[in-house]
Amino acid sequence: MRYNVVKNANEILDNSKYLIKNPERYKGKWNTVFNNNNPICLELGMGRGSFIIEMAKKHPNVNYVGLELDKSQTATAVNNIKNDKIDNLRLICADAKEIANFFGKEIDTIYLTFSEPWPKRQDEKKRFTHEGYLKLYDRIFKKHKHIILKTDNKILFSSALESLSKYWYSFDVVSLDLHNDERKIKNVMTDFEKNYFKEHRTIYYLEASFKG
Ligand SMILES: C[S@@+](CC[C@H](N)C(=O)[O-])C[C@H]1O[C@@H](n2cnc3c(N)ncnc32)[C@H](O)[C@@H]1O
């Protein structure tokens, strides 16, 4: 899927009430952003945002934050909210490397959806399931850690299984074919996933947790 360039992305972002412009300000205080103490889930690399928008609509008693590095993708996510009023959703346009500056120990679940696979060995550290990122997540998770990952990339999936096991996560669900799994795992599709579904591509899925 090609990334679209949104010419007036800055303007769209500046005018969005969903975009949190200085997320550092709310570190440890996201309950004040949402005005409640409901669980907070974070998607890293939300792209055009379909997944996080749909999740927020489906689960009004859970708060959702979608983070995306690219301004055009974030602006498209803002546009995709349309005129809906989704009180339990906020967006951040920033690098995932920065998350420990944005959140205290207040995140319940992290979603890693079709993240860049970085298949070359020299790029391993950039994968969202590399130990460096798992250490970052430790700084923002509440007591229990919970990661949900979906990908069509075998290299990324197997390295995620290895990296999470080494880091003492347990696997609550592992599926080597999410869309044809007999367990009928509840699933909201992302934008990339909708295309892959049409192409009958195999999707790998895991839910991992650590109850320390
Ligand atoms: C393959 S796309 C998947 C988008 C979306 N999750 C989906 O499934 O439709 C990966 C997204 O991650 C974003 N991304 C890559 N590296 C990132 C980083 N370090 N921080 C935040 N977003 C990042 C990219 O800009 C891109 O939008």
Task: Describe the model.
This protein is of the alpha/beta class. The protein has a single domain (9-211), classed as Rossmann fold (3-Layer(aba) Sandwich). The protein is built from 8 helices and 7 strands, in the order ααβαβαβαβαβαβαβ. It has helices at 9-14, 30-34, 50-58, 71-81, 99-102, 131-140, 154-166, 191-198; strands spanning 40-44, 63-68, 89-93, 109-113, 144-151, 170-175, 204-211. Strands 3-2-1-4-5-7-6 form a 7-stranded mixed β-sheet, sandwiched between helices. Strand 1 (40-44), helix 3 and strand 2 form a beta-alpha-beta unit. The protein is globular and about 40 Å long. It binds S-adenosylmethionine. The site of S-adenosylmethionine has 20 residues, from strand 2 and helix 8. S-adenosylmethionine is lined by residues 44-47, 67-70, 73, 95-97, 113-116, 190-193.
Summary tags:
single chain; Rossmann fold; 212 residues; alpha/beta; 31% helix; 7 strands; 20% strand; seven-stranded mixed β-sheet; binds S-adenosylmethionine
